[in-house]
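Re: your question about Glutamine--tRNA ligase

S., sorry for the slow reply, the queue was backed up all week. Below is exactly what I fed in.
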Amino acid sequence: MAALDSLSLFTSLGLSEQKARETLKNSALSAQLREAATQAQQTLGSTIDKATGTLLYGLASRLRDTRRLSFLVSYIASKKIHTEPQLSAALEYVRSHPLDPVDTVDFERECGVGVIVTPEQIEEAVEAAINRHRPQLLVERYHFNMGLLMGEARAVLKWADGKMIKNEVDMQVLHLLGPKMEADLEKKPKVAKTRLEETDRRMAKDVMENGETADQTLSLMEQLRGEALKFHKPGENYKTPGYVVTPHTMNLLKQHLEITGGQANNGICFLRFDDTNPEKEEAKFFTAICDMVAWLGYTPYKVTYASDYFDQLYAWAVELIRRGLAYVCHQRGEELKGHNTLPSPWRDRPMEESLLLFEAMRKGKFSEGEATLRMKLVMEDGKMDPVAYRVKYTPHHRTGDKWCIYPTYDYTHCLCDSIEHITHSLCTKEFQARRSSYFWLCNALDVYCPVQWEYGRLNLHYAVVSKRKILQLVATGAVRDWDDPRLFTLTALRRRGFPPEAINNFCARVGVTVAQTTMEPHLLEACVRDVLNDTAPRAMAVLESLRVIITNFPAAKSLDIQVPNFPADETKGFHQVPFAPIVFIERTDFKEEPEPGFKRLAWGQPVGLRHTGYVIELQRVVKGPRGCVESLEVTCRRADAGEKPKAFIHWVSQPLMCEVRLYERLFQHKNPEDPTEVPGGFLSDLNLASLHVVEAALVDCSVALAKPFDKFQFERLGYFSVDPDSHQGKLVFNRTVTLKEDPGKV
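Result:
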């Protein structure tokens, strides 16, 4: 009955029924929201309107210091705080002023209490922003970044309602430009896109300068918009949500600053491996991760392992027991699973007994699963007394058989951060439920407490990214290994030919957010094309070849043709290819009976050969016994000696034979892990045509000395990378991405 009452209460605040039910699953959040709504109703003496309800929900879900609940509810109920910017400022204020009492005068000034923003002020601020960008607006029209206008108006009117600013921007832009025309609906030209990116870069630089951390060269992290720019300053850990202040906090932070020198931006970055489970850790995985980090262009200040600190972690576990905050438990694994489980019958065993039993665990006197060390706390998700240590008799890849008990991630992560004096510990969103144990454990031991920052995982459609599921794909033979180019692991993307710059650019464009993001693969591929277009030299290759004999070849021997490496910028050099009486073209570039609109080689329809300055015209079709076209006989003429042909095609002469691997999506559906979309599971969704191997492709001899991972644009075909399977006399190419062409181009 209580749940039904709460559901009715939450929907009356403006929450959808689905959102209300999700809230009820979080006991801490639902209790705080219920208390906030009850207090607001007492203040108002009437029902709560939706705007107030939205703010109350924002307060309940983001407030960690429950002592401030009544104080902030009173401001919301009385409409002194009535916008989202004011609420954000209020939450920030109580986070950064954890000690009593609250200076109400200072609080109200910092939160814009009493500040009234009139529609006239919004109109003037938007008009001023538009006037500053009027020339660019008139050129780019609706392709202009309207967010820039809203951002400038918000900078002037900090407490203005965001929706009112957006509506005003929309109205004034419509008045200036008129209704959208067909050209406004087309994809933004690349030049305008580059200008937008430069604007974004300047905006990011301005933010960093306002934070007094600007640098002449913006790193990737500084480019990433969103949450990354909200990091707390060194020593101000207590300003972050949920951070627990103890009597020792300020002194520990002071010591931390003395050790680190206050570094944050332009500071140092650790790469640490959580090697706490000897059954799952293999040295090859750590080596591969280090290789990928280096490939992406990053050099960690130091590479460390949780196992580096096993001795200290054990000593702290003993100290936890001494403080009555941990105990040895004999419940089995299946009894510990799930949430809201009953307390362990060994939770209150004497401290001295747990010390003796923990020492016995270390000495190998318990079998696996027979005993664990558990911490006395309840996590956000309702999980009670998480395990700190368990027994495992598997040798560790770094420490050998020195230990038979190993710490868990819940126990290890925050303490290793503390040892290394980390300022910002970055992890993905699924670890948010562990934040309370993170703070609790550091404070329980009276050690420096860093801050864990969670951000959304970046996922891609038509892919699986979990280690367990990729292992299944490898085990079933669906893919060759972790570096199979159809996967989206970093090592697979490298093998396929994705440049690291493209991956960094893609991440920068997506930005860092707390929300989980799932992107279409073609957006990543667009970043790949942008980089390869400027870095991959051109070559010519023929996948399905057709032999062409030029009966009136203009020379007694083959000609040397100079081909630009980058046709758009011939200052980047040329390479030489032979042009002989026998050439090979794509079989699809010839049709004996062409359909309407076909522009390449056909009877009565000559075609140009790229880079040669010659046009060929069909004279004879040679067929085999079964009627299949085996070769063509043509004549040639100078391209400037007659009418310009409708098309120019690529070709090869005296070519190298190579293998070409063409990749398509590994899965048929966008979300192969979604049971509603793929009821049979992700392994049932495999695309059986995801790999097509052309074993006898032909490529021009300019690539003869290419090495693994060298990249080329095969004209009219796409971008290709040399695969490590290549060996002397046989090159293997992976198609990285296709060319960006109109689907209807022939």
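Residues 397 and 507 are 33 Å apart (CA to CA). Residues 270-407 form a domain with the Glutamyl-tRNA Synthetase; domain 3 fold (CATH 3.90.800.10).

Happy to talk it through on Thursday.
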